[in-house]
Amino acid sequence: MIIGVPKEIKEDEKRVSLVPSGVQMLTQSGHRVLVENDAGVGAGFSDEEYRQAGAEIFESGQALWQEAQMIVKVKEPLPGEYQLIQDGQIILTFLHLAAVPQLARVLAEKKAVAVAYETIEGPNRSLPLLEPMSEIAGRMATQIGARLLESTFGGRGVLMGGVPGVPPADVVIIGGGTVGVTATRVAIGMGAQVTILDINSQRLREIYRLFDGRIVSLMSNSYSLERVVQYADLLIGAVLLPGGRAPRLVTEEMVKTMKPGAVIIDVAIDQGGIVETIDRVTTHSSPTYSKHGVLHYAVPNMPGAVPRTATFALTNVTTGFVLELANKGYKAAFAENEMLAAGANVVHGHFVHPAVAEAVNMDYTPLNRVLQQF
Ligand SMILES: NC(=O)C1=CN([C@@H]2O[C@H](COP(=O)(O)OP(=O)(O)OC[C@H]3O[C@@H](n4cnc5c(N)ncnc54)[C@H](O)[C@@H]3O)[C@@H](O)[C@H]2O)C=CC1
Ligand SMILES: CC(=O)C(=O)O
């Protein structure tokens, strides 16, 4: 198969979808790998390293998209890339289609085979390709939140850990999955007071044990949210309904009750965000805006700011799936690997993931029914 690795064009996105060792695995298995020039430079990989691993370096991204049978990316194709998608091409990347229905329609029109990292699902409903990025974003959410709370960044001038005689910051984390737990670990390490909410009581029990009772755990509902949002210095949104649009849990009325200079970091912005007053995505270069006196941060590619770490963490878990799709072709790969089949979002014009189909308001067709036709 011919595999293409374009350079990411999202603002401040410096990750790359394959590292030289992954390219070598693919070329040694008889595949051609086309890498756009400088695609890896932001993550510290030169064209020469890719060349030595067997890649062909393409000067033109357009020519690469035209020739590749499978495009492997990090972030979703942006409008400038829509016309590059080829009929029937396999696209493997983070897609987050619930937040970009326009892209969902393009992928359907192009009859692409669109596989989303974030819905590839393992045993016990785990999301093994999302998990390492969530581990990074969770750590970053607290780290960035601590910085934004400083008055120079517009925050209320509160030090996360406080000092003897002065209380620490109150960090409220909504969603106790991978982002929530990793954000909690860093916040506790900094000495903050953490309240974490989830709708899964078993999960809350696990988190309570994990942190040896050093956090406040709460069942998430509108009643408890109204109360905790008021006292948060730093509020972190970390909810996920896999494939679906993030539920709007924090209303504008709740935000109005927050303390001046409090900070909201909505990590779930990639799925549309959980905070009503977040009406736009922000970037690493211009990460915040203020509304009702509260700083809002809504960067959908947080790991993009630590591209070296994030590229290794991502490709550690993605490369095996790239190899499987290349070796078997998508039909056999989906048939033989349920995890990969769960990643299929749009195939030959059909929406084959039920939560994604619902989120973008399209009819759902089971994947096996679509595959029988081809
Ligand atoms: N902005 C960025 O750069 C990044 C964003 N993310 C996003 O962060 C979000 C969270 O990801 P993970 O922690 O990996 O997901 P996860 O699936 O591990 O955890 C989500 C948690 O939300 C809980 N939940 C569901 N409904 C809830 C509600 N109404 N109230 C409170 N909790 C609720 C679930 O029970 C679960 O424990 C996702 O949208 C993910 O895509 C992840 C990495 C990077
Ligand atoms: C998960 C995601 O959207 C990211 O790593 O950018």
TrEMBL record:
Tell me which EC number(s) this protein carries.
Answer: 1.4.1.1
CC cofactor: Mg(2+)
Swiss-Prot/TrEMBL catalytic activity: L-alanine + NAD(+) + H2O = pyruvate + NH4(+) + NADH + H(+)
**Note describing how the cofactor binds:** Binds 1 Mg(2+) ion per subunit.
Q: In which pathway does it act?
A: Amino-acid degradation; L-alanine degradation via dehydrogenase pathway; NH(3) and pyruvate from L-alanine: step 1/1
Q: Which Pfam families match?
A: AlaDh_PNT_C (PF01262), AlaDh_PNT_N (PF05222)
Q: Which domain of life is it from?
A: Bacteria
Q: Which GO terms describe its molecular function?
A: alanine dehydrogenase activity; metal ion binding; nucleotide binding
Domain (Alanine dehydrogenase/pyridine nucleotide transhydrogenase N-terminal): give its ranges.
4-137
Q: Which residue ranges does the record assign to the Alanine dehydrogenase/pyridine nucleotide transhydrogenase NAD(H)-binding domain?
A: 149-298
Q: Which PROSITE patterns match?
A: ALADH_PNT_2
Q: Which GO terms describe its biological process?
A: L-alanine catabolic process
Q: What top-tier enzyme class does this entry carry? A: oxidoreductase
Q: Which residues bind substrate?
A: 15, 75
* Active-site positions on this chain: 96, 270
- What GO CC annotations are associated with the protein? plasma membrane
Where does this protein hold NAD(+)? 134, 198, 203, 220, 239-240, 267-270, 280, 299-302
At which positions is Mg(2+) bound?
Answer: 324
What UniProt keywords apply to this chain's record, in alphabetical order? Answer: Magnesium, Metal-binding, NAD, Nucleotide-binding, Oxidoreductase
| Record family assignment | Belongs to the AlaDH/PNT family.
What is this protein's record name?
A: Alanine dehydrogenase
- Report the source organism: Dethiobacter alkaliphilus AHT 1
